[in-house]
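Researcher: Structure for this, please.
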Amino acid sequence: MPFPLTRRGEVMIPHSSAARLSADEAMTRLVHALERERASAISREGNVLRFKVAHMDRSSQWDILAQIDHGVLTVDDIADGVRVTYEFSHRRMLTQVTAVVLFVFGAAVIGSDTLRPELLITLALMCFLLFGIIIMISAPSFPTFLYNAIKAPP
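Model: Predicted structure, token format:
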């Protein structure tokens, strides 16, 4: 699927990088990292961590969680270290991109004398293209964030 609304993956942190951390210690570090990034509604049940991201003020700096609505992290001990499996949603980002495209370009299309289908298709393609570019740029940073959150001392 070229424009996924949900992203899934996993990050392996070997014992040499994580100083023999247990899954519980890794989970605690992830909670602290998410709190530092201003995630809201963080809940932990066993080895599963759920979080939501409230709409944030983007005026200060780029935020690792800006493109995420909510997510689920699962942390497991494995023979060589710790494995973090993640899944998060981009629905809000798609909604925001669609609103911006409609606001900026929609008036010209809707205000024209004849509403041609190819103009509506162009608007839809612009939404998906912009959304895809944002996700392609930001997607590699989340696994790095998880890896660094576990690897860094508390």
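Researcher: Any notable elements?
Model: The helical segments are 15-18, 23-36, 91-110, 117-138, 141-151. The radius of gyration is 19 Å.
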